[in-house]
Amino acid sequence: MPSQRFDVQAEQRRASDEAKIPAEVRHEIASLDPADLLILQYPMWWHLPPAMMKGWMDRVLIYGEVYASQKRFEKGRFLGKRAMILVTVATGSETYDFNGRSGDIDLLLWPVHFSLAYVGFTVLEPFIAYGVESGLRYSDDSVLQSRLEKVASDLGDALAVLNKRPNIPFNRMAEWGGDGRIVPSAQVHSPFIRHRRHLQLT
């Protein structure tokens, strides 16, 4: 008998096992399977992906069909495929430095990067278009046009040498202990993950 408590993962697994995944979701997953490269393009919105992008991830990257306890990271469904974020932000790069007003861009993008790595993608360094709105209310159309043309040119240059774009390193399943923490011998790749420091009391 189904539980009276709504369990998202259990319902996703049930839909996967019983071939009851909604047609729109099946279509999205089927589109990802043959793709060599996934590019997620979105504007930074309140320091996060907009709701539409987050909703796509919630609905498409489902438990059972896309990932499971033994189907993630180096055993993920999308192993061997690459993914890259292409994000636009309103202000200049200085505000997104590690000590910038808007916060460290690498930390802000980490949840999406980690989610992509979680389902098996090799994650490329992001393409970030800075300053797409900064000061536009005081600028004429020619300034805006010039700025956007520069972004388009830079993106074209980046895509032309995509095979040389560095990967973002992530820890693999083998580097996590049974308690879910990183093992002492593993290298740490993210500021969100750290080795526990044990204090000895004397």
Describe the structure.
There is one protein chain. The chain has 202 residues and is of the alpha/beta class. The chain has a domain at 36-58 and 68-175: 3-Layer(aba) Sandwich (Rossmann fold). The chain has 5 helices and 4 strands. Strands 1, 2, 3 and 4 form a 4-stranded parallel sheet that branches. The longest helix is centred in the last third of the chain and has 20 residues, at 141-160. The model has no long low-confidence stretch (mean pLDDT 88).
Beta percentage is 5-15%
Structural class: alpha/beta
Q: Major β-sheet, in short?
A: 4 strands, parallel
| SSE sequence, one letter per element | HHEHEHEEH
Radius of gyration: 20 Å
Distance N terminus to C terminus?
Answer: 55 Å
CATH superfamily of the domain at 36-58 and 68-175: Flavodoxin domain
Give the integer mean of the pLDDT values.
Answer: 88
CATH class of the domain at 36-58 and 68-175: Alpha Beta
User: How many β strands by DSSP?
Assistant: 4
- CA-based shape: globular
> Per CATH, what is the topology of the domain at 36-58 and 68-175?
Rossmann fold
Give the count of helical stretches.
Answer: 5
Per CATH, the architecture of the domain at 36-58 and 68-175 is: 3-Layer(aba) Sandwich
- Spans of at least 5 consecutive residues with low confidence: none
What oligomeric assembly is this protein in? Answer: single chain
Indicate the percent of residues in helices.
25-40%
